[in-house]
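Changelog note: in this version the structure field was regenerated for every chain. One regenerated record is shown below for reference.
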Amino acid sequence: MERRRGPHPGLRERHRGLSADAGAGLLSTLAGTGVFLALLFFAVHLLIGLHLTSVVTAVTWDAARLAAGEQGDRVQAQAHAEQLLDGYTEDLRLVWGPADQGSVTLTVTATNPNLLWPGLMEEVGVEQIERTVTVRAEDFDDGR
């Protein structure tokens, strides 16, 4: 019985000495892995920064809403905000705006923790979070 040969009969004999891993070098593998990890680290840092910005914004609104309520206690609202942001950063400032009968203004400034190399944080643009919220003060008139 005669064996059938493919369209290129000598191809298998010419490449017999090469393995399946031919061309996979150590340096190119390390460089590719390093670039992948750097981009992954950058993306995780950016996502954490965006999440923390949302948290600071929500806490700012919550504290201003508490201070603008019927019992409107700024000290209690500030303690609530500091409790929610406890351990977030050492550089946390809550500044209340001027006392106005019609509204309550709160400015929260915080610094994101640095997960990247020094100096790269400023380039990303998520180093400092500053949120200012103005909420109309509630004044319930019970009709008396």
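Spot check on this record: The longest helix spans residues 26-67. The first strand starts at residue 92 and ends at 96.
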